[in-house]
UniProtKB/TrEMBL annotation:
Phylogenetic placement of the source organism: Bacteria, Bacillati, Bacillota, Bacilli, Bacillales
Name used for this protein in its record: Adenosylmethionine-8-amino-7-oxononanoate aminotransferase
Keywords (A to Z) from UniProt: Aminotransferase, Biotin biosynthesis, Coiled coil, Cytoplasm, Pyridoxal phosphate, S-adenosyl-L-methionine, Transferase
PROSITE patterns, per database record: AA_TRANSFER_CLASS_3
Organism name: Halalkalibacterium halodurans (strain ATCC BAA-125 / DSM 18197 / FERM 7344 / JCM 9153 / C-125)
Entry-annotated residues carrying N6-(pyridoxal phosphate)lysine: K279
GO cellular component: cytoplasm
Length: 451
């Protein structure tokens, strides 16, 4: 097929996720191949992968060890079901995940995407209390602006108005508490203390009906890269223990080195009852996800079949061998190449580079944890006044960046920078330079169009 054919057929038959297809028609893009931190389209243009192919990629594309692990597994078998039967790579990966995860985690329940991992966590937490005879513990607490996926269950414990509002009557009710966002004239420790005080009041009043709380680890991703005040997640953990509420931590975006630790909960030594992982688990290769639990969760489901405690949940491709083999190879590279320490160093370098971005007139805030960054765009730094949303300044900035040789996506007025962990300092600098230029071009254009 020629590239013109491909373009025409993509417009005729595809329906892309999180995409207004009229936007795609105006600015289509078809990727043909990738290598390292670069992607190449069918016209032969190359781009820096500034969003790790949507927060997934770790060691770059076509990483030799992962390619080979998949080929090797293919010689044995591509897939057999995990329903009632294990397979070799799923066992090896489970052992590895338990070794890497916080100490209290002992069990691995596989699925295929982050949303499924969270959906499973919610169902597990719900049934956990039912199985144990606490029939009133049925509701969930979640943070405003939280994002846990796009299925009906995960939208119910999510709280992003733009994505979720239209489905309101389809969703179950969750108790939404405000994300501890810093306000002016409030120190981080005051914010932390006051937010935890409010949560304590909620737990005191309602703990008998609350099954669990879902929370992203330290930084909200899709909600716009919002950082929690230090100590908040630890405080949530302590309140959960005190009031017998399950702590479900979503590490889908933050897991596997993204924040400078293997898992973001390590920054505060938090031990979730249930923890969800996906995205980086296979190095960005194949759709594997997992819901990790402490042993007490598992035990609440264990018994004779006739006890009716079984967790009746599963997906056709759960525990896929090719995916687990890719994940194992991915995790081996973490050790071999000392990735976590490298991320810590690269994050410091990136922080320095981002200072130049923070100075721009159109940048209201730069938020960063490890190699996870959000750049908030505003019309005027001094007033923090946003651009009219219809102007889509961040989206337009990303189109400019594409023309300059880097791909990423916006979240509202926030530009995401999530480079593969393998990006070198030189490549990080190039990404930041392109980002600066893209922001300036688009923001200037937006202002011009207002007069
Ligand atoms: C991406 C994401 C999800 C959903 O994962 P999918 O694989 O896209 O279903 C859930 N939680 C968080 C924190 C995420 O960033």
């Amino acid at each position: 097929m020629t590239s013109n054919d491909l373009l025409a057929k993509s417009k005729k038959h595809l329906w892309l996720p999180f995409t207004q297809m009229s936007d795609y028609e105006k600015d289509p893009l078809i990727i043909e191949s990738g290598n390292g931190v670069y992607l190449k389209d069918i016209e032969g243009n190359t781009y820096l992968d500034g969003y790790s192919s949507l927060w997934l990629n770790v060691h770059g594309h076509r990483k030799k060890e992962i390619d080979e692990a998949i080929e090797k597994q293919l010689q044995l078998i591509a897939h057999s079901t995990l329903l009632g039967a294990a397979n070799i790579p799923s066992i090896q990966l489970a052992e590895k995940l338990v070794e890497l995860a916080p100490e209290a985690i002992t069990r691995v329940f596989y699925s295929d995407s982050g949303a499924e991992a969270v959906e499973i966590a919610v169902k597990m937490a719900y049934q956990y209390w039912q199985n144990r005879g606490y029939e009133n513990k049925k509701s969930f607490v979640t943070l405003s602006n939280g994002y846990h996926g796009d299925t009906v269950g995960t939208m119910s414990v999510g709280s992003i108005e733009l994505y979720h509002k239209v489905y309101t009557s389809l969703l179950f009710d969750a108790i939404v508490i405000p994300f501890p966002a810093s306000k002016e004239e409030q120190t981080e420790s005051d914010l932390c203390r006051e937010s935890l005080k409010q949560l304590r009041e909620l737990f005191e009043a309602k703990h008998e009906e609350i099954a669990g709380i879902t929370v992203e680890a330290l930084i909200q991703g899709a909600g716009g890269m919002n950082l929690m005040p230090k100590g908040y997640l630890k405080g949530v953990e302590q309140l959960c223990k005190e009031f017998h509420i399950l702590l479900i931590v979503d590490e889908v975006a933050t897991g596997f080195g993204r924040t400078g630790k293997m898992f973001a909960v390590e920054h505060e030594n938090v031990q979730p009852d249930i923890m969800t992982v996906a995205k980086g688990i296979t190095g960005g290769y194949l759709p594997i996800a997992a819901t990790l639990t402490q042993e007490h969760i598992y035990e609440a489901f264990y018994g004779e079949y006739t006890d009716l405690k079984t967790f009746f949940h599963g997906h056709s491709y759960t525990g896929n061998q090719l995916g687990c083999a890719a994940a194992l190879a991915n995790l081996e590279i973490f050790e071999k190449e000392n990735i976590i320490q490298q991320v810590e160093e690269k994050a410091l370098f990136l922080e320095e580079q981002l200072k130049h971005v923070a100075e721009l007139e159109f940048v209201g805030a730069v938020r960063q944890l490890g190699l996870m960054c959000g750049i908030q765009l505003v019309q005027h730094k001094r007033t923090s006044e946003p651009f009219p949303w219809e102007q889509r300044v961040a989206y337009r900035s990303t189109l400019k960046m594409r023309a300059l040789g880097m791909l990423t996506r916006p979240l509202g007025d926030v530009i995401v920078l999530m480079p593969p962990l393998a990006a070198t300092n030189d490549q990080l600098k190039q990404m930041v330079d392109i980002m600066k230029e893209g922001i300036m071009e688009a923001a200037t254009e937006c202002l011009e169009q207002q007069v």
